[in-house]
Design brief:
The structure holds 2 protein chains of 2 kinds. Chain A is an all-alpha fold. Chain A has helices at residues 2-48, 76-108, 111-124, 129-147, 156-180, 184-192, 197-226, 229-234, 252-259, 268-302, and strands spanning 58-59, 65-66, 73-75. In chain A, helix 1 (2-48) runs antiparallel to helix 10, helix 4 (129-147) packs across helix 5 (156-180) and helix 5 (156-180) crosses helix 7. The longest helix of chain A has 47 residues, at 2-48. In chain B, a hairpin with a 2-residue loop joins strand 1 and strand 2. Classes of the chains: A mainly alpha, B alpha/beta.
């Protein structure tokens, strides 16, 4: 009897590898598919931009974006400066605020309000960017114009404020998750040594959750860089290098969205816009790679 | 004998679940008091009352009186200084994610200890915890790289760095191998000269090895408290006898 049972068991374990192989193949396929899509995106971006990268009219450091003058001038720097101004300002607002909000929600708020507030914060993420752009244009911009005595309220600062608002839900939600993943034993260990709640948060919680918090910040910043509709509506759309964030700017994304409709497929302007796409792609790639490196490095150091 | 801790008719309940029922006992200075009993007997709850870690649990109701020297434990406004003078070691070693040195310095630093003091304090504490010889040449490496037993002794050193009057240990050896366990038991026997120790353990043999007096708790009540020898050889209560003999628990 015993022998028979053993044998049966054995055949069952022999079946396992086939289903495992299928599972593994599916997962492998899905993973390669992701890489394939990204490769496709890069391929078509480069293909459609044609040879514009190597022509004299498309320059990374160029300070003028004049697509319809003769000869046209495609200086990327002016748009890059706009993107940087908006992104940096928005990150400087959203990252500290988001982390503080997450600490409040996760550590200081009583359990019963926690879920409620988190749902509300996450609901912010569901607001379409065109609605946020609209609010910024109609409500925020006139107020900014008045408050800082400007010629127009449609500035890099206004756009950054609204974008910070858009990035907040991502940062808050992911930071809160990161804090939550810190085991309670560490909290208790610190408190039992006579740490105050604040000392426990700054000296134990934040350092332990750092990789997760960094990832949260990076994803938030990623959302800001890629955002198009809201900045198109609020940033003022002026392709000049700004001397302060209180001036209108134009970003890479807004330029592509605004001008694509005016181009003829294959002409220089069309190619230049795809060139901008390549530049954006490279920036995002660099940020993500840097974040990834940093996060992984931290993990291996501390485990 | 000087009494270090006096507990009078202490009751604790979580919501409508009673964890400790009308418990009174006193702990003498420089003794090791062992507390044994099955799970849910209220042993851990008793420890968390003594350094007010129980405050981290919502909806808890405490009544009775606990005094430690001239401090009224249940009403003292300064729980942070109470927790510094009453060290606590948990079942799972909780080395903080920093270097060995930073772990030991953590408590004194938060208490506002002068920088110059720290170096000697780190050495003293690690020597007391019996860990110095093993780690003195790598104080600045991550504490999480230590083995489980070493991490637990590091936790003891960390508590010692605050020069506590009382040390509470909540099943400190439950996750450790026999060799690490006997190391920690040796450490405790050394430490009793400087402080009062309360050792909660699931393992009656451990109490028999190191404790001067042992208390047996069951379902939140103190069944019996006696000299360790007496409790293990000639228990007064039948339930104690059955627990020690392994009939339940």
């Amino acid at each position: 009897m015993k022998n028979i049972k053993l044998k049966k068991h054995k055949t069952e374990t022999f079946k396992q590898p086939l289903s495992e192989k299928i599972t593994e193949a599916c997962l492998r396929f899905a993973a390669w598919l992701c890489i394939f899509f990204i490769a496709c995106i890069l391929y078509f971006l480069v293909k459609e931009s044609g040879g514009v990268f190597f022509s004299d009219i498309f320059t990374i450091t160029g300070k003028f974006w004049r697509p319809i003058s003769e000869p046209p001038d495609f200086g990327v720097w002016v748009l890059l400066a706009g993107s940087l101004a908006v992104t940096l300002t928005a990150s400087l607002i959203a990252v500290p605020l988001g982390i503080c909000a997450a600490i409040f929600i996760g550590e200081l708020l009583p359990q019963k309000f926690r879920e409620f507030l988190k749902v509300i914060v996450e609901f912010l993420a569901a607001i379409p960017s065109v609605v946020i752009g609209f609010l910024g244009m109609i409500i925020l911009a006139p107020y900014i114009k008045e408050a800082f005595d400007l010629k127009t309220g449609l500035t890099a600062f206004s756009a950054a404020l609204m974008l910070a608002w858009m990035a907040m839900p991502t940062i808050v939600s992911l930071t809160e998750d990161a804090l939550r993943s810190v085991p309670d034993t560490l909290r208790d260990g610190a408190l039992a040594l006579g740490a105050t709640k604040w000392q426990m948060i700054t000296r134990v919680l934040l350092p332990t959750a750092k990789p997760g918090i960094l990832a949260a910040a990076m994803l938030g910043v990623g959302r800001v860089i890629g955002e198009t509709m809201a900045v198109l509506m609020i940033s003022g759309n002026s392709a000049r290098i700004p001397s302060s964030i209180m001036e209108p700017v134009r970003t890479l994304t807004a330029t592509i969205a605004a001008e694509m409709g005016e181009t003829v497929k294959g002409d220089e302007h069309y190619q230049a816009l795809f060139g901008l796409g390549v530049v954006l792609f490279i920036i995002t790639l660099l940020i993500n790679t840097a974040a990834d490196r940093f996060i992984n490095k931290k993990y291996t150091e501390e485990s | 004998m000087v009494k270090e801790i006096i507990i009078k008719s202490l009751s604790v309940s979580y919501g409508n679940k009673q964890a400790i029922r009308n418990l009174s006992l006193s702990v003498e200075k420089n003794e090791i008091l062992g507390i044994i009993g099955p799970t849910t007997s209220g042993k851990t709850t008793l420890l968390t009352v003594l350094n007010r870690m129980i405050d981290t649990i919502p909806s808890v109701a405490i009544s009775g009186n606990v005094s430690m020297g001239d401090i009224d434990v249940l009403t003292t406004p300064n729980i942070h200084s109470l927790r510094r003078s009453v060290g606590m070691i948990f079942a799972l070693p909780v080395a903080l994610p920093m270097t060995i040195r930073e772990n030991v310095e953590y408590g004194p630093k938060m208490a506002g200890e002068a920088k110059g003091e720290l170096e000697t304090r780190v050495k003293e504490s690690l020597v007391q915890a019996g860990l110095w010889d093993e780690v003195h040449d790598r104080l600045d490496t991550p504490a999480l790289k230590l083995s489980g037993g070493q991490q637990q002794r590091l936790c003891i050193a960390r508590a010692l760095a605050l020069k506590p009057k009382v040390l509470l240990l909540d099943e400190p050896c439950s996750g450790l191998d026999p060799i690490s366990t006997s190391r920690i038991e040796d450490t405790l026997s050394q430490l009793k000269n400087d402080m009062t120790i309360i050792l909660v353990t699931n393992n009656p043999h451990q109490a028999a090895r190191v404790a001067h007096r042992t208390a047996f708790m069951l379902k939140g009540e103190l069944i019996e408290l006696a000299d360790t020898d007496t409790l293990f050889t000639n228990p007064a209560d039948n339930r104690t006898k059955e627990y020690i003999e392994g009939k339940f628990g």
